[in-house]
Design goal:
heterotrimer, A alpha/beta (897), B mainly alpha (341), C alpha+beta (204), A: 897 residues, alpha/beta, Ubiquitin-like (UB roll), Rossmann fold, Dimethylsulfoxide Reductase, domain 2, 4 domains, seven-stranded mixed beta sheet, six-stranded mixed β-barrel, 33 helices, B: 341 residues, mainly alpha, two-stranded antiparallel ribbon, two-stranded antiparallel sheet, globular
């Protein structure tokens, strides 16, 4: 940290041990560094001291003899502290006695029993006889909320839960109510708790006052086996402890200070562990016999799959396709891509990256040579300004969202949010730009235009790269009118945001899925790169531009080249030397022309040009809008091999289905959105005869007479790391936060930049405005679901079943729709009946529906608009998510209310 | 014609004697367990039948139905023959034991199956053969324990047979006959009307020597070196099971009964009642009583004495028992010579 | 004198006499299956699970017995009672009696007096699997030998003979037997041992 200011060190003595610490260090921190334990309930390393529990009292001998709170007292030079003096122990004992006067001592039925701080301290420091006899608390337990139970009898009123909810999660869902002996923690006004259920309050609770409803009475801490592993839900890639009892998952606990989340987990991380032992898991391979899929042996299934693939391969060049998913491990993706490109000799390899952040990732790679985010979460925490574009960060990447929230706390309203909804983060941010759905391109153009027009261009950039600046300026000749009209924003708002962003030193841009996955997503992303370029964010350390990836290993897909335009190592297919290198490593030939993208593949399947396909770890039928058409394409195949955990909609179309293992049942690595490669470990019993994906692809390669044999997943990673060196080191972000290197930037500006400039700033055509369809339906991300496995999770489904249509409250009232009413949604493609709920996040004229809902009817209302080739090198693939719909109170309205 | 009756008489007597002996063997085991139990403040077998009376039958049945195992590496033929070689001498000796006063059956003389004039010699000759069964059984088992047991047995039997032989020569000198019938008859009557004319009173030392040698001959405690459990598992019949084991077992107990019978005949007046007014009790009852008393003594010493060491055993046999019996023989011979002259 | 002793083997005769006289002493054995020893209350026999008077299960599934077990023969699977949130119980309870060492630590660990040892020591079965006691079997034992269990708890100072009733407890609460420090070891008289008895124990 070269930028860190020099902090003076002071010399202190704790229990006779002398040490040097930076000024401002508190007693408890210094003691912990020395390995001296000071008991505490309310102290938490990531939060400011609360000094509520009073158990950390220690004796200070010098410079004055007095008792101090170790958690809140900053050390002074020459201070001498005793943490185990007689006086300290006596105070500690009295404090414990006071806490225990009201504690119910129901440890045998308390889920915290065995890891409870109060228990431990009572054994260590407590007395056997309590002089303070009083009535024990006897509040009824609050079990009204879906996920968290509150037992106020056990509460020691340390306030850590309230603090983490307010300071770190910034939700403020719980607080103290009442006073004195009857003080309780809970939702305000004694209501049932209805928050986002991140569960952080439960983690910081030192006693058993807040416990998980899903793990209630299912475990005792000493029975558990703990496995440090990586969360599989979103691109944040949090590390957590998966706890198992006899091979069955009991719960998930965070690890303080480890991984991107630094010990924070979201609702999915905490409570999304139920899909692994779901009875619907596939246990044996399936093969198609007539109309039915029947269970069979691995040998037969592998033989059948190999026969079908070999037949298609023999039928002509490039007649096999492969689609990988973002929840496969790096090892699985590598082997899968090698299987498709090398063993099956087909360039048609695509992945769920296609309906994810492909545009963001490829633009970042071409322009900046960076795979993944430029900035790490730590950069976000320190950033002076964060511009969120089309990015509901708290829903899409909750832990990344916590980093943004931390930045909010530090600066003077530094977060700028542009979105088509009033998102949670918007309520905390300085400036909000709420634009009409689908007009991201216009908005970004407006921002760039504001920077250029208002003279906010970074002086260095203007001086160094005048040609590039001029080229951009030339594209922005239009008026603000063409931006104001579609977006519904005023010039002043846009200019204000641009001004604030440009003036910040460490300015970070986060582009969400509505930018990268929208129509003209590649252009939009390129424009954001321009914005960062013009404001100097590309070269300033700690600043930059980033695209958020949604699936947990989406970046692994990019890194290992699981897209037709990519090669392992994140290099482009068009890069001839890279292609030659890969071909040499695999001892095969790779054609010059890149393969089809996913949408083209489906087209080719329908037309009979592709006869066999391998799909793993993703469910294009069940998870894409307009999945019915995808299913049609897949059914036209001669042989479809699917590997998945469940019998997904895609698997139902398959000829052979392989049951594979979940992340909790095998070893491997995932790459998170920062580029950290993090390990997963086998922690629980795998169901039936399922096999790890690595083993499946290895077996299939052997069945195809092209053995790819590995002793372990680590060996696969070692091989993959030769082509993608990023895989070699574990747990470190990709290190681009120092800024883009000058040669890369210049190569970009002089090379690809000007060629792709053409049409970049053209606005897309307007949506077809049919008069009777007066709403815009938007399929978006929900905190509780991520599409891959979350809907198989009974726990998460109980918290949020992802089947509600959200509507603006005012419009709902106007239409007479109450919460829970069933409504009909109609588009040009059909209609669906769904339950509606009013939500103030939704803007007027807009409807929100979870993208990952199991409700296929709803998804099929939305058409996929495939971007045209007119953007030059930009390949297609945008999911157009906005259509017009009409709401009418359904015939059975109110039946469910 | 006479031969026919003779055969029938003999067969009848054999049947009666054999059944008696085998039943005695059976209940000897029962009695041994019971008596030992009483001596050890226990109750012994109580489960099969009233007071466990059917226990010997249960044991017999059990042994009969047990699996017959021949160990790997054993000499099958000798292994099979050895128990028979052991059993036959034990049973055959009863042919010359007079079990009651002479009577006439079908015109034939009864009271003894065969009144051989070399009866005593006959018994000793066969007893010598019995040792072969033990040695062969021990050798054929292909087991170190069995072999050691067999060797010890050979040494022990040879040693004590000498002492036993010497101890009865005195009796022979007194009665002047090798026929057991004659010896028994010579002991009828009383001295002075109240002392039975039994050899035990004339030959107390010989009687003592005989009993000690008999215990050693039958491998009983405290001289059961050939089958010392703590050292040799079960000695020469370690590897035997089922009916073959039962044969050895029968032989051991048969031998005990035989030597007890012989002691009764030689020293305790056989079937003779001790005093004339008691002669209304039949002779075989007296014989049985005396035999059982000796058998009880066998059990009694088993319950009392610990096993001697092998070297002590040999030392006692050669250095004490044989000299004592030789001296006794000399004294007896002198006495008889003086008395006769 | 010594010679006479040797010649007439008087020591041997003395031994014979003693053994002979022993025959007339009463026997001291027990005809076991027909006659049985009286078992003391503190005897640690087969384990059993007890119920409250109203028939509800005492066990709250806290797994402390499992933690206390030195031979790892107990397995508790705890859960909420279906339909009764917050009521903890042992959904499954397994005790591998073939591995049990009958130390009784589990009964001491039990906070609700749900575990007690009976006086049953005849556990032989023809099928080893029957020695894996499940919850049903343990509660059946507890019902069958309730008196044994009660006596056991009293004898070990874990109960005062009332078998702490459930009265006054809420649905999701349970009784804690009061802590009796007298059984901590300082006052041996109170657990039925006199000083003399203790001393004798030590001498042995």
């Amino acid at each position: 940290m070269s930028t860190a200011t020099k902090v003076a060190t002071i010399t202190v003595t704790i229990n006779g041990q002398t040490t040097q610490v930076p000024k401002g260090t508190r007693i408890i921190q210094a003691a912990q560094q020395l390995g001296i334990e000071i008991p505490t309930f309310c102290y938490h390393p990531r939060m400011r001291p609360n000094a509520a529990c009073r158990i950390c009292t220690v004796e200070v001998v010098k410079p004055m003899n007095k008792m101090f709170m170790a958690c809140s007292t900053e050390l002074m030079d020459g201070m001498e502290v005793l943490t185990d003096s007689e006086r300290t122990l006596k105070d500690r004992q009295t404090n414990l006695d006071l806490l225990l006067t009201q504690h119910p001592l129901d440890c045998p039925v308390c889920d915290k029993g065995g890891e409870c701080k109060l228990q431990d301290y009572s054994v260590k420091y407590g007395s056997l006889e309590n002089p303070f006899a009083t009535q024990r608390k006897d509040f009824p337990e609050d079990i009204r909320s879906v996920a968290l139970d509150f037992n106020s009898n056990r509460c020691v009123l340390c306030g850590a839960c309230i603090q983490i909810c307010g300071d770190i999660q910034m939700v403020d869902a719980i607080g103290f109510s009442k006073r004195g002996f009857i003080t309780v923690v809970g939702a305000p006004m004694g209501e049932a708790l209805d928050c986002e259920f991140c569960g952080q309050c439960m983690d910081v609770c030192p006693v058993g006052a807040i416990t998980s409803r899903f793990a209630k009475y299912k475990y005792r801490p000493w029975q558990e086996t703990t496995t440090l592993t990586t969360c599989t839900y979103c691109g944040c890639g949090c590390q957590y402890d998966l706890r198992t009892v006899d091979g069955e998952i009991s719960r998930v606990t965070p690890v303080e200070g480890v991984g991107p989340g630094q010990g924070s987990l979201c609702v999915r991380g905490h409570f999304g562990y139920h899909f692994m032992d779901d009875p619907r898991r596939l246990t044996r391979p399936l093969v198609r016999r007539g109309d039915k899929l029947v269970e069979t042996t691995w040998d037969e299934a592998l033989t059948e799959a190999a026969r079908g693939l070999a037949r298609a391969k023999a039928g002509g060049a490039n007649r096999v396709a492969g689609i990988a998913g973002g929840r496969m491990t790096n090892e699985e993706i590598y082997l899968f891509s090698r299987l498709v490109r090398d063993v099956l000799g087909s360039p048609h390899l695509d992945s769920s990256l296609r309906y994810g952040a492909i545009n963001g990732v490829t633009v970042m790679q071409q322009a900046l040579g960076v795979t993944g985010m430029m900035n790490s979460f730590d950069d976000l925490r320190r950033a002076d300004s964060i511009l969120l574009v089309g990015c509901d960060i708290t829903q899409e990447a909750p832990i990344c969202g916590l980093a943004v929230k931390e930045a909010i706390k530090k600066g003077e309203k530094p977060v700028l949010v542009a979105d088509s909804m009033k998102t949670e983060i918007m309520k905390l941010g300085a400036a909000r730009l709420v634009y009409a759905p689908g007009t991201e391109v216009a908005l970004i153009k407006g921002l760039v235009k504001a920077v250029v027009d208002e003279g906010l261009i970074d002086a260095d950039v203007a001086a160094k790269y005048p040609r590039a600046v001029e080229a951009i300026r030339a594209e922005l000749s239009g008026t603000y009118k063409e931006i104001e009209t579609p977006t519904g924003l005023s010039k002043a708002d846009i200019v204000a945001v641009a001004r604030q962003f440009a003036s910040a030193r460490r300015a970070v841009i986060l582009a969400g899925p509505r930018v990268t996955g929208g129509l003209k997503g590649k252009s939009a992303m390129a424009m954001l790169v321009d914005l960062a370029f013009l404001t100097g964010a590309l070269t300033t350390p700690g600043a930059g531009v980033n695209a958020i990836t949604m699936e947990n290993n989406e970046l692994g897909l990019a890194l290992l080249g699981a897209a037709p335009e990519l090669l392992p190592g994140g290099r482009g297919w068009s890069d001839a030397t890279a292609r030659a290198q890969v071909a040499e490593a695999w001892n095969c030939t790779l054609p010059e022309h890149a393969g089809d993208t996913m949408m083209d593949m489906f087209e080719a399947m329908r037309e009979g040009q592709i006869n066999a396909a391998l799909i793993s770890g993703t469910d294009p039928v069940g998870r894409t809008p307009a999945g019915a058409k995808v299913a049609e394409s897949l059914r036209a195949l001669d042989c479809l091999v699917v590997a998945d955990l469940f019998l997904t909609e895609t698997a139902k179309c398959a000829d052979v289905v392989f049951p594979v293992r979940s992340y909790a049942e095998m070893d491997g690595t995932f790459t998170n959105m920062e580029g950290r490669v993090q390990e997963i470990h086998s922690a629980m019993k795998a169901p039936g005869k399922s096999r790890p994906g690595v083993e499946v692809w290895s077996n299939l390669a052997r069945a195809l007479d092209h053995p790819l044999e590995y002793a372990s997943a680590a060996e696969v990673r070692a091989e993959a790391a030769r082509l993608a060196p990023q895989l070699a080191t574990l747990g470190v972000p990709n290190g681009a936060s120092a800024g883009v290197s000058v040669p890369t930037l210049e190569a970009w500006l002089q090379g690809g930049y000007l060629q792709t400039m053409n049409h970049r700033y053209d606005l897309p055509a307007k949506l077809n405005e049919a008069s009777e369809h007066n709403f815009r339906l938007y399929l978006g991300e929900l905190l509780y679901h991520s599409g891959s496995m979350s809907t198989y999770n009974w726990g998460l489904m109980k918290i949020n079943a992802a089947n509600e249509l959200l509507i603006n409250p005012r419009e709902g009232r106007k239409l007479g729709i109450r919460d829970g009413d069933r409504v009909t949604v109609t588009s040009q493609l059909g209609s669906a009946v769904v339950v509606a709920r009013a939500d103030s996040q939704v803007m007027p004229g807009t409807l929100f529906f979870p993208r990952h809902s199991v409700n296929a009817e709803m998804r099929n209302l939305v058409q996929v608009v495939v971007g045209s080739q007119e953007e030059g090198a930009v390949p297609l693939s945008c999911l157009e998510r906005v259509t017009l719909a009409r709401v009418a109170a359904s015939a059975e309205a109110g039946a469910s209310a | 014609m006479e031969i026919g009756w003779m055969v029938i008489t003999a067969l009848l007597q054999i049947t009666v004697v054999l059944i008696t002996v085998l039943l005695t063997v059976a209940y000897m085991t029962y009695a041994e367990r019971k008596v030992l139990s009483f001596m050890q403040d226990r109750l012994g077998p109580m489960e099969v039948g009233p007071y466990g009376l059917l226990q010997p039958i249960a044991d017999g049945l059990k042994l009969f139905f047990k699996e017959d195992i021949i160990p790997a590496g054993a000499n099958k033929i000798i292994f099979s023959i050895a128990p028979i070689i052991c059993l036959i001498p034990a049973l055959i000796g009863f042919a010359v034991i007079p079990y009651t006063e002479g009577f006439t059956l079908f015109g034939m003389q009864g009271g003894v199956i065969a009144d051989l004039n070399v009866g005593l010699l006959y018994i000793f000759a066969f007893a010598g053969v019995g040792a072969y069964g033990v040695i062969l059984g021990g050798w054929a088992s292909n087991s170190k324990y069995a072999l050691l047991g067999g060797l010890r047995s050979a040494a022990q039997i040879i040693s004590y047979e000498l002492a036993m032989g010497f101890s009865i020569v005195g009796v022979l000198l007194l009665s002047g006959s090798l026929s057991l019938v004659s010896i028994t008859q010579a002991q009828s009557g009383t001295w002075f009307g109240f002392i039975p004319q039994w050899n035990v009173f004339l030959q107390p030392v010989a009687f003592g020597a005989y009993v000690i040698a008999a215990v050693a001959e039958t491998n009983r405690l405290p001289f059961d070196m050939p089958e010392a459990e703590s050292e040799l598992v079960a000695g020469f019949f370690t590897e035997y099971s089922g009916m073959r084991f039962a044969f050895f077992f029968l032989a051991e107990y048969g031998n005990m009964i035989l030597v007890s019978c012989l002691a009764s005949v030689l020293f305790l007046g056989g079937y003779n009642a001790p005093l004339p007014f008691l002669s209304f009790i039949p002779g075989f009852a007296w014989l049985a009583l005396k035999t059982w008393a000796l058998l009880f003594f066998f059990i009694w010493i088993r319950g009392t004495f610990p096993r001697v060491r092998f070297d002590q055993l040999m030392k006692f046999g050669w250095k004490v028992l044989i000299p004592v019996t030789l001296v006794n023989l000399l004294v007896t011979a002198l006495g008889v010579y003086i008395y006769n002259n | 004198m010594g010679l006479i002793k040797t010649v007439f083997m008087t020591e041997l005769l003395m031994g014979l006499k003693i053994v002979f006289m022993q025959m007339f002493k009463p026997y001291c054995t027990l005809q076991y299956p027909h006659v049985k020893h009286p078992i003391p209350d503190g005897y640690r026999g087969l384990m059993s699970l007890l119920r409250y008077e109203d028939g509800s299960e005492r066990c709250v599934g806290c797994s402390l017995c499992e933690a206390a077990c030195p031979s790892n023969c107990i397995k508790v699977v705890s859960d909420e009672v279906p339909g009764q949130p917050l009521v903890r119980y042992a959904r499954e309870y397994y005790l591998d009696i073939s591995r049990c060492v009958f130390c009784g630590f589990c009964t001491e660990a039990c906070p609700v007096d749900a575990l007690a040892m009976t006086k049953v020591y005849e556990a032989s079965v023809y099928d080893r699997r029957e020695l894996m006691f499940d919850k049903r079997k343990l509660y059946a034992l507890g019902e069958q030998f309730l008196e044994d269990g009660k006596a056991y708890l009293v004898a070990h100072g874990m109960d005062d003979g009332t078998l702490y009733p459930r009265e006054g407890l809420g649905d999701n609460r349970y009784a804690f037997p009061p802590v009796d420090t007298a059984h901590g070891g300082e006052q041996p008289e109170q657990i039925g041992l006199t000083r003399e008895a203790l001393e004798v124990e030590e001498i042995r």
